[in-house]
Amino acid sequence: MRSEADGTAPADGAGGLPPRFRHDLLNALNAVVGFAGLLVEDLPEGQPKEFARRVLEAGLEAQRLAERLPATAPRGVRVLLVGPAAEAHAAALETLGLVPTPAGTVAEATDALAEAPDAWDVVVAERHSDALGAACGTSGPVLLALLAGEPVHGLAARILATRH
To answer: Is 0.85 surpassed by the pTM of this model?
Structure first.
């Protein structure tokens, strides 16, 4: 699908290609090019062989274009989840394209933040903690509270809202 305004393909909802898209596309194109090459070698002269040549040329051009695609999708929002329910929330947020890391306790989270302060974009805590606030600081990750009974889609929306 192309955008009428600029003639380019619109970005998907995550802002990039699905993981492994380029790899899988190149594998498929390799199969097309390989099979077309075999047909060109094995078919007698005539329309079928000419068609196989056109398929081979188109496949080679598609491979050249596919090589220009980014090798990986853009990095997802990295989330440090703090509290007893961190594991359950991590699994759910991962299905929505976020990159969660569970930490069962505030102490575990503050240690992780001290070791790698730039490793997370957002910290989500089940309970308020002055220690977490201090560990995030003013220039570190955004600190959010996990709201009681909040659905995972609501939490994901709040996390993503911090990035814009």
So the answer is: no
